[in-house]
Amino acid sequence: MLQKTNTATLADFDHHDHPPSQSVFGFWVYLMTDCILFAALFATFGVLGHQFAGGPTGKDLFNISDVAVETAVLLISSITYGFAMLGAHQRKTGAVLGWLSVTFILGALFLVLELREFSHLIAEGAGPQRSAFLSSFFVLVSTHGVHVFFGLVWMAVLMMQVIRRPQLDDREVRRLTCLSLFWHFLDVVWICVFTFVYLGSVI
């Protein structure tokens, strides 16, 4: 009887000493604030998207086939990250690192394509200072690009942490889960950008 009591007390102590992590819930809260940020940027583009100041329009500037390639690259990176999470839940370190590496390369390729698009627009005299339309476009798309860049930095840090630990534990899986939420969120935002900004400006 005394042994059972001691065991129960020890279990209670361990429960209070190590409460369940709220990191995933907290990250959902952060994503909600990011939703507000992007909603404000989309609303700004909606208001200024037809203020061309006599300059080029989206139909004159945007190459939908190139943007479609960017979109495909980012969506495929979301799939490869999903495979990384499957490996994480199965505690397969090699699979996690392999799929994260593929995801990182695809994310970096997306940024290269986006920067190439920006440089092409600026070379044609269609920089952010040309019109309200282009100002709102550059702010919205570059804000998404900055998020992708920090996502890649975060991914590289997590890959280093996985390499240093011989066995994945719950803490690493939670960290990978938070980045997974972030990465998929960026995919959803980009689909909105592709539909609302690019297609909406061309059609």
TrEMBL record:
**Would the keyword Cell membrane turn up in this protein's UniProt record?**
yes
Q: Which residues form a coiled coil?
A: none
Indicate where this protein resides in the cell: Cell membrane
User: Membrane spanning segments where?
Assistant: 27-48, 68-88, 95-113, 133-160, 181-200
Name the predominant localization.
Answer: membrane
Q: Which GO terms describe its cellular component?
A: plasma membrane
Task: Output the PANTHER family linked to this UniProt entry.
Answer: CYTOCHROME BO(3) UBIQUINOL OXIDASE SUBUNIT 3, CYTOCHROME C OXIDASE SUBUNIT III
Q: How does it assemble?
A: Heterooctamer of two A chains, two B chains, two C chains and two D chains.
Q: What is the role of the protein in this entry? A: Cytochrome bo(3) ubiquinol terminal oxidase is the component of the aerobic respiratory chain of E.coli that predominates when cells are grown at high aeration. Has proton pump activity across the membrane in addition to electron transfer, pumping 2 protons/electron.
- Record-given protein name: Cytochrome bo(3) ubiquinol oxidase subunit 3
Q: Which organism is it from?
A: Paraburkholderia pallida
